[in-house]
Amino acid sequence: MIAEVDQNECIGCESCPAFCPEVFRMGADGLAEAYTNPVPSECEEAAKEAAEGCPAHCISIEE
Ligand code: SF4
Fold first, then answer.
1. Does the keyword Transport feature in the UniProt annotation (predicted)?
2. Where are the domains of the chain?
C-alpha cells in the first residue's frame, strides 16, 4: 500500500500524523508528508483512517 499527500491541497491541520505517526509527519513547511512507503502492514488501517479523516481530502491510498 502506498500513501501520498497532495501538498497543494494540504491545509496543515496536523490530523494525519495524529492518526498514523508511523506514516505521516508534518514537514518544516507546515504541510504533511507521507514518509514511510510502502505503508507497513500493521499501519494500513491507521493510514486509511488518516485518509478518511483528512478535511482537505488530499491523502490518497493506493493498494
Ligand atoms: Fe494535510 Fe490532510 Fe494531513 Fe490535515 S489531514 S495535515 S490537511 S494531509
1. yes
2. 2-62
Cell numbers representing residue 16 in the block: 494525519
Distance 9 CA to ligand 1 centre (A): 8
pLDDT along the chain (63 residues), means of 10: 98 98 98 98 98 98 95
Of all protein residues, the one whose alpha carbon is nearest to atom 4 of ligand 1 is 13
Residue list, ligand 1 pocket, CB within 6 Å: 5, 10-16, 32, 54-56, 58-59
Contacts for 41 with CB less than 8 Å, ≥ 6 apart: 1
Q: How far apart are CA 13 and CA 63, in angstroms?
A: 25
pTM above 0.85, yes or no: yes
